[in-house]
Amino acid sequence: xxxxxxxxxxxxxxxQFMMFDQELAQLDQKHLLRRLSTVESSVGPRIKMNGxxxxxxxxxxxxxxxxxxxxxxxxxxxxxQYGFGSGASRLISGxxxxxxxxxRRLALFKNTDAALLFNSGYAANTGIIPAIAGEGDVVLSDSxxxxxxxxxxxxxxxxxxxxxxxxxxxxxxLLAKSGHARRKLIVTDGVFSMDGDIAPLPGLVQLAEKYHAxxxxxxxxxxxxxxxxxxxxxxxxxxxxxxxIQMGTxxxxxxxxxxxxxxxxALIDYLVNTARSFIFSTALPPAVCAASxxxxxxxxxxxxxxxxxxxxxNRFVKGLEALGVGVGGSESPIIPIMIxxxxxxxxAGQELLSRGIYATAIRxxxxxxxxxxxxxxxxxxxxxxDINETLEAFNGLKQEGFI
Length: 403
Ligand SMILES: *Cc1c(COP(=O)(O)O)cnc(C)c1O
Fold this sequence. Notes:
This protein has about 400 residues and is of the alpha/beta class. About 45% of the residues lie in helices and about 15% in strands.
């Protein structure tokens, strides 16, 4: 009797693993299987993969800070002083003076009352949205928002209304139908992560004010990148003070790790009490905060880095256009090369790799079905020769009919 039970239990576990295999095989067949690639060097314009030196054209380390000596030194010093781990969540015993200093600096940087750290942008969005919008509320979300916003919406008990990408008329028609809602939250990427276009913030602010909705902007790809002093989307549009919830990340242009939300004191205190990803997660290591502080110093003191980033971006886009390669709606250092079919996009990525350039194919579900692409990003630390080498590779891809 017992033996039979054991047999069925083992059989049922084995069968479940076989199902994983089958599902992976199906993904592979659709050219949607993902595999990890190991970067054996530090992050920079050139990296080492499989012992080979490659030109890196898909990192979010826009300003070249991820490997910067000042960040390394700041982290090492903080580690000496505070050790490595934080030991607990912020509300238990995990708050160090460096968390507080970084929050103070971020609030200054964003010109807001206060700021709150989160352990990642993913944690921020999945914490903030459900904390702000619950039962009886409405969230209005751009159709191309980042997955972490989508997941934040899924965790929220609010009604979720997705508006067509950057379509203010569609958004307004949804807002007009949300009169019953206790609270309305409009949420958008500042710079869209897979297309590199910029949210129509002036229109969003107007609609938010007209319909008494809260507006939340995710500046993951805007922080350090857009606006005269790299403060993000609100600065870029001259709308400082009119975006009540400004979220951003520290792991992209700031070369560090973690995320923040900046806003009014009451918002921040409310999130300390309600954002579950803040409350129930171990605090960032103090050394990570020290690296973020060093990165903010550099962003403020070296605007020439941002200028180089934009020069590189413009040089690359001009070169692509001269080759007859479109860049979609890109308005930022994120430059999507549209391919469409997932298999073809994957092969184009492999082809680039064979030419010494690393830029991954982005396929569904990261992007909508039929819009697979190579998502290129340029960095301040790329040289003119790096950009030219990449353009040469694209010339090759064009000859071979990939684009
Ligand atoms: C990368 C990204 C995030 C997630 O940030 P992490 O710190 O990497 O978790 C959130 N939103 C957008 C728009 C992003 O591009």
